[in-house]
Amino acid sequence: MVTYPEAHILDVVGPLEVLNGTRYFLPDGPEPYRVTVVAPQAGPVRMASGLSLHAHRSIAEAAKDTSEIDTLIISGGHGTSAALGNAELLDYVRHAAQRARRVVSICTGAMILAKVGLLDGRRATTHWWWCPILEQRHPEVQVDRDAIYVRDGNIWSSAGVTAGMDLALALVEMDWGHAIALEVARFNVMYMIRPGGQSQFSAYLVAQRAEDPAINASLEYIMGAPADPLTVTALAAKAGLSERTFARRFKDETGLTPAAYVERARIQAARVALETTPKGVEEIAYVTGFQSAERMRRAFQRHLGVSASDYRYRFRDVRADDALIRDGPDHP
């Protein structure tokens, strides 16, 4: 994690809390992440909030380390403007990125990635206030103003502040699987489903726990059995409620009708299968409740703006396709 004076403290601690929280759900496994905070100077670094964080290493010290980096994260915040003039910091990011499996920017950290050329020809996002500035200063970057976060090959960028936690949750899912990510989301009281087509992964909906026990049980049932006939009649019967009462209480808790929630839950299940399994689109459509590839295609287009096949191409598990990481999504 690269930070600097006057950075936004949540840009640093938010993603790190999500990543480090994974260890609670891997009690017998390896330590999920070992974190090193790097700043212009080791020791206390004053954040924009007035609080200080402790940097483990100075940039000068970190630059001497030539070992591989799994994930290089660049924080953002009010101090970004000054950081853009720090040649030592920029040089470190430029060279460290070459030995990192993936590179991540939080909030205005995207400005630093763009400054050193890492976003040239790529899609990216940043805090909404800075999006037009990123576009103006770096016209070679394809800026997505609406995205919660964006992945283009092995480069990830997020919108402002808490969007960095959404991005970190996506990293957990990539590294440790959907089930662990869901537990981390619940632990952090975060949302989990990530819609938004080929540019946006927003985490919401499925990890939400309803206060009503009957509705909460229904949510878990929907996610656990997306291929079942999840009609209002069937769900209401399972919840022991009349259809009218069930539909009303369900919408009060989730903000969605049962049918809308079921479709989004099926999209989530299909998305995970498309990203992480070699199953064909037709088979995935069947096991996730869409019954046909055409129905799934229409649902993906409606909610995500891409077909299921295009989604798989853009977001498939990069561990199974090293070329995607090395060359980016335009070079399969």
TrEMBL record:
Keywords attached to this entry = Transcription, Transcription regulation
The record's annotation in Gene3D superfamilies points to:
3.40.50.880, Homeodomain-like
Q: Which InterPro entries match?
A: Class_I_gatase-like, DJ-1/PfpI, Homeodomain-like_sf, HTH_AraC, INH-QAR
The superkingdom of the source organism is Bacteria
Name any one Pfam family assigned in the record.
DJ-1_PfpI
Domain HTH araC/xylS-type per the UniProt entry, residue ranges: 216-314
Could you confirm whether the keyword Cell membrane appears in this record?
A: no
Q: Does the keyword Transcription apply?
A: yes
- Give the protein name, as stated in the record: GlxA family transcriptional regulator
Query: What organism, scientifically named, is this protein from?
Result: Donghicola mangrovi
